[in-house]
Amino acid sequence: MEIQIQPMTREAAARISTWRYPAPYDFYSMAADEEDILELMNGDYAAASDSAGNLVGFYCTGNSARVAGGYGAGLYEDDTCVDYGLGMNPELTGQGAGLDFVKAGMAYVSDKFLGKGIRLAVAKFNQRAAKVYSRAGFRETCEFSSMVGGRNVLFIGMVYRFPEDARTT
């Protein structure tokens, strides 16, 4: 899948906020309210489309990609990494396109933050995503819990380090 990444628009943010994931992934569904749209429009998010212009997901960096419980676990102490989050259209998940989607986001982050490693947090129950991240080269660094939506959720911190020669282009 060829991915085109562009700044988040209000239209894309409104569509993303309505995406509904099936259980147990419903953890990632948003409320589809103005607060969600404004979060997606805060400058940390980018929209991802396929070659036909269909919205396939989003990427985020910086504080918007962080999970509160990661601070206590020391996940965010390393300033040689940029925080990375992503979400794929639920209609496309589980169909084998995840690795290409993750790698497109990694290339986007690498171009935007030259010389930085990439760090993410994934809910531990989401083994499907964790396996894709591992296949993309991420390595587990820690486990921690965080309150999300009124419940305590376990997370895995993961980091990707680019080979030295990949940073000098």
Automatic annotation (TrEMBL):
This is RimJ/RimL family protein N-acetyltransferase. It comes from Paenibacillus favisporus. Residues 3-163 form the N-acetyltransferase domain. It comes from the Bacteria. PROSITE patterns: GNAT. SUPFAM superfamilies: Acyl-CoA N-acyltransferases (Nat). Coiled coil: none annotated. Pfam families: Acetyltransf_3. InterPro entries: Acyl_CoA_acyltransferase, GNAT_dom.
